[in-house]
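queue> holo job accepted (S-adenosylmethionine)
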Amino acid sequence: MVGATPQRPGSATATGQQVVIGATGAAGIEGMPPFNTTTPGHISVMKDEVLDFLALRYPGNFLDMTFGGGGHTRAILEGHKDNTVTAIDCDPDAAPRAALLNKEYAGRFTFVDGFFDEAIEATPKATFDGVLFDLGVSSFQLDTAERGFSFRKEAPADMRMNPRTGTPAWKFIEEASLQTLETVLRDWAEEPRWRAVAQALHMAKGSPALATTLGLATLVGKHAQHTHRINPATRTFMGLRMAVNDEIGRLERALPKAFGRLKQDGVLAVISFHSVEDRVVKLFFREVTHTSEPIKIVKGMKVKPHAPAKLLLKKVGRPEKDEKATNARSRSAKLRVVQRISASKPSLPSAKIVLSETILDAAQGRGEQPSAAPTQRSAKSGQRK
Ligand SMILES: C[S@@+](CC[C@H](N)C(=O)[O-])C[C@H]1O[C@@H](n2cnc3c(N)ncnc32)[C@H](O)[C@@H]1O
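queue> job finished
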C-alpha cells in the first residue's frame, strides 16, 4: 500500500506492473503531465441494472475491474454502508480520481493500478461477492484529445489506455504486416472495406498521415465504407484501439481469474460494447454454466453434476430507451451476468475468438512473424473476402 504522499501512482512501474494504493494525492508530479480530473465526467452505463444483480450480495466485498470515473464503484459503496470495493484501472489518470473517492470512503475502498488480468493478482482481498467489468474506454479518455482516441481533435495517434507501456497506434501500424492490418480491420474493426483500408495504411507507412488522429482519420475516410450514421474512421479507430490495448486477450485472461475469485453465490457482471468482446463473454459464460463432467451413477441413480455457475440473465441485457436517449455511449452496451454456484474450479473456455499472436506481438512492439495466424472467426461472406 502506498501512503498519502502526492505522487503519480504506478509511475515507478512503467512496464505496467500494478501498485496497490489505499490513498494517493490528486496532484501531479514534476515532469509529468497533469492528471486529468477535469474533463466532462463519464456517465456510468446500465448502473441500475448492474446494481440490481450485485445487490443480491449486499453487504459484501466487490471488485470493480474497470474503475474509470468510479461511477459504478461509488454506487456500490453507497449501496450499503458495509460494502467494500477494490477497483482496478490501468490508466494513470484513473488513480487520482480513485484517490478522491478513497478520501470519502476510507477503509472501504482500495485502488489497484494495473491491467486487470495482471492486477487482479494484487488485490488484498482473496474472494469477492461480486465482480464487475465495464469494458472499453471512458469519456475521460475519449474527451482528452492528447490521448489520441478521438478523431475530433488533432493529437498523436496514441490510443493506449496505459501510455506508460506498450506501443502507440501509429507505431503499431508502422510495424504491422499487411496481413495483420487486414485481420485487425476485418475482425476487430468490422470494417466492410477492410482490405482497402489495410492497404491504404500499409502504403502510408513512413508518411506523416499515420502520426496523428486527424491525419489517420482523413486517410481512412478516403477508403472506408461511408454510412450516414458514423464517421467513416470510427470502426478503424476501434479496431486499432483493441489491438494496441490487447483488449480481447486481456479479457480472455481476466474472465477465468475473476470467476475464480468469486465466493460461492458470488455474481459476475460484464458490460461490453463490441460484438467480439461480447462473444468472448458469451463463450466463457457458456463454459461455466454447463458442466463438462460426465453423468455419474450414485446409488443406482443417474446424477448430472452441477455446472459451476448459472445465468442470472437468460438473455443479454440492453439499456432502457431513456438511457440510450440520454447517453449515446450506452447504445451498444450489452450486459451479461452469472452467479457462481459451486466452489469447484471452472474449466477455461477453449475457443479463441480472433486473437493471433502476431497481432499481439505487433501491438507490444515485439515485431512480426512471417505470416499471421489465420483467425478462427468466420468472415461474414459477401462483405468480407
Ligand atoms: C468504460 S470505463 C469504466 C467506467 C466506470 N465503470 C464508471 O462508472 O465510471 C473503462 C475503464 O476501464 C479501464 N480498462 C479497460 N481495459 C482495462 C484493462 N485491461 N485493465 C485495466 N483497466 C482497463 C479503462 O482505462 C477505463 O478507465
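queue> The pocket of S-adenosylmethionine is lined by residues 42, 44, 66, 68-72, 88-91, 94, 115-116, 134, 136-138, 161, 250 (CB under 6 Å).
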